[in-house]
Amino acid sequence: MLCLKAANREDIEKEYLFVRDVPEDENGFINEYHGISREDFDDALDIIIMNSRGLRLPEGYVPATTYFLWKNDKIIGQFNVRHCLCESLENGAGHIGYYISPEYRGMGYGTQGLQLALEKARKIVPEDEIYLRVHKDNPASLKVMLHNGGRIHHEDDESYFVRIPNWHFDKKQP
Ligand SMILES: CC(C)(COP(=O)(O)OP(=O)(O)OC[C@H]1O[C@@H](n2cnc3c(N)ncnc32)[C@H](O)[C@@H]1OP(=O)(O)O)[C@@H](O)C(=O)NCCC(=O)NCCS
User: Fold this and answer.
1) Digit-coded pLDDT (tens) for 123-164
2) Ligand 1 pocket test: which of 111, 136, 142 has the largest number of ligand atoms within 8 Å of its C-beta?
3) What is the DSSP letter of 93?
């Protein structure tokens, strides 16, 4: 079974091993906790959880929730959902960033995980569209977005800027 679970203290041991091994930057998915010690992750996890409630955010950051993608009892991916846009997100990384462990790629988990992340985002995000950005040399991620109803809104030299319709939990789904 596949599910998305917000970062939490009960799952700290599995969350730690996953986060420690995610690279620092792969295709623009940034992991500031790469290689972190178990001791330091204890505090980092508190901050991750607080960020979700809008607390202990770096200057200029909006609240963001870190979700882990679980396949049964194993974490195989991470989806970061920013709760709203600020100027840098609007013109940059957008609402959602994601990562699937290399050994689980090419099996549809990125596509299914983004579908689950969109369900979460649609309960939080006030904007009419979910904004995403993908490097032009990352066709797998672009497909993940397009499979989830994304359309390329515009592009620059390096990236496509993709938008996915948002409908709020209190609105009828199309
Ligand atoms: C991008 C990423 C999330 C994709 O995850 P995934 O689980 O492999 O995605 P899926 O299995 O759902 O595959 C998505 C599509 O990409 C296609 N694909 C995979 N590798 C590809 C490649 N090298 N070139 C073209 N298409 C590719 C798959 O065939 C699939 O298309 P299909 O459903 O039409 O067959 C994963 O590679 C990853 O975590 N990469 C590192 C971090 C990253 O790039 N994050 C996104 C930043 S925008």
Assistant:
1) 999 999 999 999 999 999 999 999 999 999 999 999 999 999
2) 111
3) T
How far apart are the CA of 1 and the centre of ligand 1, in A? 20
Q: Closest ligand 1 atom, CA of 27?
A: 44
DSSP state letters, 57-79: PPTTPPPEEEEEEEETTEEEEEE
Residue 172 in this model has a pLDDT that exceeds 70: no
Residues having CB closer than 6 A to ligand 1 are 26-29, 98-100, 105-111, 134, 138-141, 143-144
Domain made up of 2-165: CATH architecture: 3-Layer(aba) Sandwich (3.40)
Query: CA dihedral defined by 101, 108, 174, 121, rounded to 10 degrees?
Result: -10
* Beta partners for residue 79, in sequence order: 67, 98
Domain locations in the chain as residue ranges: 2-165
